[in-house]
Amino acid sequence: MLTDSQPGHIDQIKQTNAGVVYRLIDRFGPISRIELSRLAQLAPASITKIVREMLEAHLVQETEFQDPGSRGRPAVGLILDTIAWHFLAARIHQGKLTLALRDLSSKLVLEEQVALETASSEPLLSRIIQQIDAFFIRHQKKLERLTAIAITLPGIVDTRAGVVHRMPWYDVTDMALGDALEQRTGLPVYIQHDIPAWTLAESLFGDAQEAKDVIQVVIDDNVGAGIITHGQLLHRGSSALVEIGHTQVDPWGGACYCGNHGCLETVASITSLLALTQQRLQAMPGSTLHHQPLTIESLCDAALTGDSLARDVITGVGGHIGRTLALMVNIFAPQKILIGSPLNRAADILYPAMLTAIRQQALPAYSQSLTLGPTRYHDAGTMPAAALVKDAMYSGTLLVKLLQG
Ligand SMILES: [Zn+2]
């Protein structure tokens, strides 16, 4: 077995090393070859070889810079060469498809939103392909060399196989989106659930860049989480969504669409929160919420101005999420917890409730130094898809394809 796997093993090492070097140039460029060799812990000869290949492929370029350590002549440093490379970053949401062209630095070149009706006589797969074709044709003149397609969406996704098993809003059964797009365009295709892809975006571009262990909880129409452990997205090769939303928190609670009762999502999703508030309003004639339409914004604002029902509802959800987080804290010992939610508007009430539950229920050694804060990105947009491409460059998988031309 060992001899069989030997060539693959060498390719794997080459891929990993190239990814590490690319990442270091992205992070520290302009950087000298000597410094690269030190940081990557690779021999100077290996660095020279990897860098030469990247230079020939126009993925990095040389530039003169003043090395802060020396007062002599400017040194030759390496920086990424990203402008001549584009990729498509897409996001499918209820009734719409967002299509963005970005360069390899993730910078936005152009973005469009097109309708993707939830009900149609034509299969979703062929409609997505038509929209992507049309997008490329419309912007033919602006296209640089295309490297990849990355798509984020809600649903049950097999990332490795590129198959979307099920989606909310759309009638989908085992849609082979990755294969179909790869055959159509000849490009590598990356597909991921939108929550873990968002977590990856926070870790690569957002406020969690310095943290190696991060838990991100999304409280919106659905409740779910993404986890970065030791700098890597947990279950990155498969369905990376952490399904905290379907953990039972109330055995006598209401029915959930997953088939169980009293799931976290049935008490903490935005829809359930508004329904709960509506229900409790009848017994609270003094609440300021009677004088305005009930929305997540009005609920948050009422809580911030001291309305006791609104405060109670938000403190309640903070406690539920906090108790679930306490379990996760004891497993992953994160430096950072990020909350992606419209409830961040009432962070002053929500966060203390969460932290109290975490401090009460998790080990002090695991919880005392963590910070809890909002995600940088609010509406996830196409940055999560851009993060999939960045991640594929850093891991070396996409990078090696580009090196091979
Ligand atoms: Zn459920």
From TrEMBL:
One Pfam assignment: ROK
SUPFAM superfamilies: Actin-like ATPase domain, Winged helix' DNA-binding domain
GO-annotated molecular function: DNA binding
GO annotation, biological process: DNA-templated transcription; regulation of DNA-templated transcription
Record InterPro entries: ATPase_NBD (IPR043129), ROK (IPR000600), WH-like_DNA-bd_sf (IPR036388), WH_DNA-bd_sf (IPR036390)
Gene3D superfamilies to which the protein is assigned, alphabetical: 3.30.420.40, Winged helix-like DNA-binding domain superfamily/Winged helix DNA-binding domain
Keyword Transcription applies: yes
Keyword vocabulary terms for this entry: Carbohydrate metabolism, DNA-binding, Transcription, Transcription regulation
Family according to the record: Belongs to the ROK (NagC/XylR) family.
Protein name in UniProt: Protein mlc
Gene name in the database record: mlc
